[in-house]
Amino acid sequence: MTVGRPVERVDGRAKVTGGARYTADRTLPGMLYSYLVMGTIARGRVTAVDTAAARAVPGVVEVFTHENAPRLTSDQHFMPLQGTQIHYNGQIVAITVATTLEQAQEAAELVRVTYAPETPKAVIADALTEVYLPANQEVIVGDPTAGLAAAEVTVTQNYSSPPHHHNPIEPHATVAQWDGDRLTVHETSQGVVNAQRTFATTFGIPQTNVRVLAPYLGGGFGGKSPVWPHSLLNAAIARQLGRPAKMVLARSQMYSIVSHRAEFRQQVTLGAKRDGTLTALVHHSTQQLSRTSENMYSHSISSRMLYACPNIHTRQQGVRLDVPTSRFMRSPQMASHFGLETALDELSYQLGIDPVELRRRNYTDVNPTTGERFSSRFLLDCYKLGADAFGWSRRNPKPGSTRDGHEFVGWGMATEAHDHNANPSSAMVRMAADGTVLSQTATQDIGTGTYTVFTQVVADALGVPLNQVKVELADTNFPPAALSAGSGTIASVTGAVNAAALAVRTAVVQLAVSNPASPLHGVSVERIITQHGYLFSPDRSRRESYRAVMARHGAPVQNTSSMTNARGYSTGAVFVEVRVDPRYGRVRVTRGVGAYDAGRVMNHKTARSQVIGGFTWGIGNALMEHTVLDRRTARVVNPNLSTYLLAVNADVPEIDAIFVNKPDPVSTALGARGFGETPITGVPAAIGNAIFHATGRRIRDLPFTQDKLLY
Amino acid sequence: MTADSEYKRRTVLKAGSAAVTATLVATPAATPAAAAQTDSSSVDMTLRVNGRDHRLAVEPRVTLLDALRERLDLTGTKKGCDRGECGACTVLVDGRRIKSCLTLAVMRQNVEITTIEGLVRGDKLHPLQEAFIRQDALQCGGCTPGQIMSGVACISEGHTRSADEIREWMSGNLCRCACYPNIVAAIQDAAK
Residue A107: closest CA among chain B residues belongs to which residue? Predict the structure, then answer.
């Protein structure tokens, strides 16, 4: 068995040598470069666009504005360049196209746009009277009012968090090429099948006429899930000009046209008995919406699914602002989870109950909203494994009780939890006449380890060495499979890959036992053992290699299978140590331990990396990451990586990742659950709780920057 | 763009590079008309990349990064921000790590440029490349070439005496998948 083992990434060599070709690495003969011009007002109209200077730049082939851009519609997004209306700052107002990148960039700077601006609203604070409750955004379980009345202790607090931007290191890129009415797009996409559908719908051509490829994706984190309008515009330009066209977004452009995590405010009210059991959980939130969409992605699922509480009220309000439409970003439930897990820490101090113990006392095997039993949940194990590894029992709960030199030391914890997607998926496995195996499926590896895990799955199902298996992904010529978002890739697609490989195994075994030329002739199919590239008789006295069986057969054996899986919920517990320098208000995270129930762990190496990545995002969200909007212009003032701060190497300590590793019995993914988004969710609260433990200061507004600790 | 348009980095780059390029070509002026005249003026140059001379003719304003990626098809070097903030474009110039987006190709003649493609010897990976795979110091791979080039320099600079020292000297290379502890482990491995 290789599943579960810390197998090295099979795409590692391509990625460490520069051999992996990403979207922006594609160059096609005759290819043109498109470059975007971004608007500079947030609300109003374009009154004129002067493209004369831009057109005069040598090499410029065309400049598109709302007046001459290809007419496109989208059923998913507001489509720019179709009229004069401006809905957010940084909206696409023109596109230059030239034979070199430099020419297109220079021309973009020379496009002159004039506007009739109106006063925009950029932040929730400026539109509090416009908060409303969109349809289907309220859930009430039991009687929350009665639950609060029955409480012996209550906590009510407000929490808030800023907008965030995904900022994958690979910018969004798209390369479009037409051949008649057939379109090939290299697209930075977390979902090539969805992308194929979007391109086909937009251009009114059959889905089979569109091929989308994304064999390597340089990070997505949700921001590369849909096809954004700029990709559709680039493809339309390629068609109109009759040449392939490539568009790569500048970093600054990624702060307005490829979505973000919405600004979020919340109020959490907890009612509890003196023993800590919750009697009511009321969670009201307000998140930013745009003028063109009321979709919201920061859901209060933790409040509805995590703790035993008979009376729950979640209310997810929105307010429309003159900003781009938000979307999901790695662990969308993190925003609301921060409020819940901080409020629980506040409750633990009011009650004088240890924060881990308080969570244990409210543990549930049953979804408190639906009453359904979870198929498997080992959260109590996570609390114990994590607390033991961290040394939590040695914690003196008194805030400010531990100092090391001039620094305050604090320990904090939180539960981690996120649900995951499961979408119907299919996969092909083919054993060639030489015994080598190819598996193809149109899901993606966005860095999480899909190539490697599926190689393990196929190798195990067939009983062949890993190096006999090749996996190919993210090409719509392959069987359709899930979007790589919502922690859904492994959960959705593993079952289909496994089923196809098992079907090939059965077929090849059949070829052997039914052929008198095989040493295994006459053995029943079910009794054959496959291992190390061989088929064995039950007592292992006789064997034949896959290679020999296939050579005799002289033709490939192939199967395509489909599978669906159930959605699921992966939980865990995270423990952190912080050191706070009271002179500067500087917080450093110096230790982290996370323990997780993710069902079966498919690969301990890649799973651990997911934990490290999630924990690091948690550090970023807790201590530094935030997008700043100028309230006057609704413009992002830090659209770059020197002022939108991500955690760097020096910000991240050693992180200990522990897995319960018990298969979920209902998961068709060999017992694995989706997991990638769980290990971020609790980290900001755990760090805030640790800061409180270190200093006695409770900060309820993310991020915990130095200014907030200094006043 | 309106009159209050932001100050663009390329404007800065042009202004800053004018003195350097002046000896090679006519000074690019800031006005559109003058820019139009000089834009077609490519410069013949030779870049020595990974031990091989590449002759190419590009405009003086072309960055080393764009010359590598868009002209020489050496796409292992990545463009993450194009303004020196992320480190994805890190290459070695005469053994020193630089961000190839912040230098012009025309300025980097007569030096040894090493990119990620130049680390492999035949089929044999560089010890740091091997260590990156072993320690799972990569996920999406978007920052990985830059991390490895930076790590090679970090080792040759001798900044590997402790994990904390590596963390500090590797903090110019962002990793959004966030493999930092594994990157530190890989560099420690390869530095042995």
Answer: B32
A101 touches chain B (CB under 8 A): yes
Query: Which of B2, B120, B132 comes nearest A115 by C-beta?
Result: B2
Name the CATH architecture for the domain at A26-119+168-220+224-255: 2-Layer Sandwich (3.30)
Q: Does a structural domain hold residue B3?
A: no
Evaluate if residue A67 carries a pLDDT over 50.
Answer: yes
What φ, ψ does residue A706 adopt, rounded to 5°?
Answer: -60, -35
Q: B54-79 burial, b for 16+ CB within 10 Å, e for fewer? A: beeebbbbbbbbbbbbbbbebbbbbb
Domain that holds residue B24: 9-118
Average pLDDT (A635-658) is 98
Same domain (yes/no): B74, B133: no
Together in a domain, B112 and B17: yes
- Distances in Å between the Cα of A366 and the Cα atoms of A362, B8, B184 are 11, 56, 42
More confident residue, A362 or B18: A362
Domain residue ranges of chain A, discontinuous segments joined by +: 26-119+168-220+224-255, 264-421+567-710, 423-563
- Using the predicted structure, report yes or no on whether residue A556 has a pLDDT greater than 50: yes
- For the domain spanning A423-563, the CATH number is 3.30.365.10
Distance from the Cα of A11 to chain B's closest Cα (Å) equals 9
Find how far residue A648's CA is from the centre of its chain: 20
- Beta strand pairing status for B112-114 and B43-49? parallel
B34 has a pLDDT exceeding 70: no
Confidence of residue B25 (pLDDT cuts 50, 70, 90): very low
Q: Same domain, yes or no, for B108 and B39?
A: yes
- Residue in chain A nearest B172 by alpha carbon: A648
| Inter-chain CB proximity A609 and B139 less than 8 Å | yes
SS3 for A499-541, per residue? HHHHHHHHHHHHHHHCCCCCCCCCCCHHHCEEECCEEECCCCC
In CATH, what number is assigned to the domain containing residue B159? Answer: 1.10.150.120
Same domain for B35 and B83: yes
Report if residue B1 sits inside a domain.
no
**Residue finishing a domain among B118, B151, B182:** B118
Residue B12 has pLDDT above 60, yes or no: no
Judged against a pLDDT cut of 70, whether residue B23 lies above it is answered with no
pLDDT at B40: 59
Does the distance separating the beta carbons of A608 and B79 come in below 8 Å?
A: no
What does the alpha-carbon distance between residue A375 and residue A571 come to, in Å, rounded to a whole number?
13
Rounded Cα–Cα distance for residues B70 and B79 (Å): 11
Q: Could you give the CA distance from residue A260 to residue A653 in angstroms, rounded to a whole number? A: 27
B167 touches chain A (CB under 8 A): yes
Contact B116 A112 (CB under 8 A): no
- Count the domains in chain B: 2
Q: Find where tokens 């922006």 sit.
A: A24
CATH number, domain A264-421+567-710: 3.30.365.10
Q: Does residue B19 sit at the A interface (CB-CB below 8 Å)?
A: no
DSSP structure class, residue A96: E
Task: List the CATH number of the domain containing B50.
Answer: 3.10.20.30
**B152 and A CB contact within 8 Å:** no
How would you write chain B as a 3-class SS string? CCCCCCCCHHHHHHHHHHHHHHCCCCCCCCCHHHHHHHHCCCEEEEEEECCEEEEEEECCCCEHHHHHHHHCCCCCCCCCCCCCCCCCCEEEECCEEEEHHHCEHHHHCCCEEECHHHCCECCECCHHHHHHHHCCCCCCCCCHHHHHHHHHHHHHHCCCCCHHHHHHHCCCCCCCCCCHHHHHHHHHHHHC
Give residue-wise pLDDT tens across range A657-701: 999 999 999 999 999 999 999 999 999 999 999 999 999 999 999
- The answer to which of A188-192, A393-397, A689-693, B27-31 has the lowest mean pLDDT is B27-31
Q: Which residues of A are catalytic?
A: 677
